[in-house]
């Protein structure tokens, strides 16, 4: 366990009403005593109080700022160590000066996420809750905020703990049969299989909302594809409510994939406008087409746009068939303003079409609704899914695989030591979520994504 003292500016760069320098570690209080002059300064600092005073450079005898000092005594602090927070005026220059003073007095620069890492190492929060801290900071929508809070409050962790306890109980039973099979008789596979079934059901219930959960957190990637000139770029602009992509009547204008974020019904979307999909002799356009295909492959949802004023049903059908088969798709008949009568025929070719005009805005609300439905996130308001991180989803899926293997091994009548191996694998997989069974590399990778000062 590291006990050196770390310090960083905890507020974002730039001018602000206040700026905070955070110090954590054994030297936090002594450093604060040396740098902060307050009334009644001969009495020791009390935890969880706000002191008003001045920050001074003791070497130069110079006053830097009138500020607040908030001391938090271990273990009742964010990191679980002694923490001192200097709440200064929000000048980047001033904060830098204060930070350098703190360093000079014996702290060292904190690494990204190091305050939260220490909180994790001191048992103030588990790994999933630490990840939720980063989610909270990055939340840009109601749904993201709500799922980050639920994760931070430990909703997933509690379920993982309950499942882990149950797994350990089963493991103990199985292991008893390895060591004392003579005393306690043969392992009864039926009870064990029964217990496994109920565990598997609980894992399935978690996985059910996982896709929607991941999309809520990361944002859904929605690729707009279609032949040239059908109005893909116009649709992007219409969804954004501004001119972001260049639109022209000349086919092949969009040659690269354009990415724009927006929030629809509380759900963050990343919309990708792509080059028109067609055979082209132009090398640059060919590259654009290639990128469009790749964008479609990585998308959570594909909007296939076709042109009601200039239909080419065979080409559009062929295009539809060339798209990744397992990705959900929406068929969008555009330019309904210029060819309203074609809707009927279009419906006979592509029955589930949404008809819009990217020019006038007709049908855009219905399209947004259809997008949320296709992504299966339309019920965001009611309940937030528990699994929102790809890492957690993978861990649960891995635990599920291991339990299915355990069940199979039991059915085959394998000996208890082999059963125990599979059960243990499931427990290890689940424990990585909360960090109980996470190795150092994983922990490091997670905290590397944090910002400095958090
Ligand atoms: N009448 C009409 N014209 C449209 C509509 N959407 C796009 N256009 C026109 O169709 C042409 C091609 O649009 P663009 O967005 O560049 O198509 P892209 O090649 O698929 O990106 C432009 O001249 C647009 O003004 C629409 O809803 N109605
Ligand atoms: Mg375009």
Topology, please?
Elements: E1 6-9, E2 16-24, H1 28-35, E3 36-38, E4 51-57, E5 62-72, E6 83-90, H2 92-104, E7 108-109, H3 114-121, H4 127-138, H5 142-152, H6 155-179, H7 181-184, H8 189-208, H9 210-218, E8 220-226, H10 232-240, E9 258-264, E10 267-273, H11 283-298, E11 301-307, H12 313-322, E12 329-334, H13 343-349, E13 354-355, H14 364-375, H15 390-411, H16 416-434, H17 440-448
Parallel strand pairs: 1-7, 8-10, 8-11, 11-12, 12-13
Antiparallel strand pairs: 1-2, 2-6, 3-4, 4-5, 5-6, 9-10
Helix pairs in contact: 4-5, 6-8, 6-16, 8-15, 15-16
The protein binds guanosine-5'-diphosphate and magnesium ion (MG).
Describe, in short, the structure shown.
47% of the residues lie in helices and 18% in strands.
Strands, count = 13
Mean pLDDT across all amino acids: 91
SS element count, helices? 17
Look at the structure and name the CATH superfamily of the largest domain: P-loop containing nucleotide triphosphate hydrolases
What does this protein look like?
- By secondary structure, this protein is an alpha/beta fold.
- It folds into three domains: 6-110, 2-Layer Sandwich (Gyrase A, domain 2), CATH 3.30.1360; 131-209 and 388-448, tRNA modification GTPase MnmE domain 2 (Four Helix Bundle (Hemerythrin (Met), subunit A)), CATH 1.20.120; 217-375, P-loop containing nucleotide triphosphate hydrolases (Rossmann fold, 3-Layer(aba) Sandwich), CATH 3.40.50.300.
- 47% of the residues lie in helices and 18% in strands.
- The protein has helices spanning 28-35, 92-104, 114-121, 127-138, 142-152, 155-179, 181-184, 189-208, 210-218, 232-240, 283-298, 313-322, 343-349, 364-375, 390-411, 416-434, 440-448, and strands at residues 6-9, 16-24, 36-38, 51-57, 62-72, 83-90, 108-109, 220-226, 258-264, 267-273, 301-307, 329-334, 354-355.
- The strands form two sheets. It has a seven-stranded mixed beta sheet with strand order 3-4-5-6-2-1-7. A six-stranded mixed beta sheet has the order 9-10-8-11-12-13, with helices on both faces.
- Helix 4 packs antiparallel against helix 5 (142-152), helix 8 (189-208) packs antiparallel against helix 15 (390-411) and helix 15 runs antiparallel to helix 16.
- The radius of gyration is 29 Å and the shape is flat.
- The protein binds guanosine-5'-diphosphate and magnesium ion.
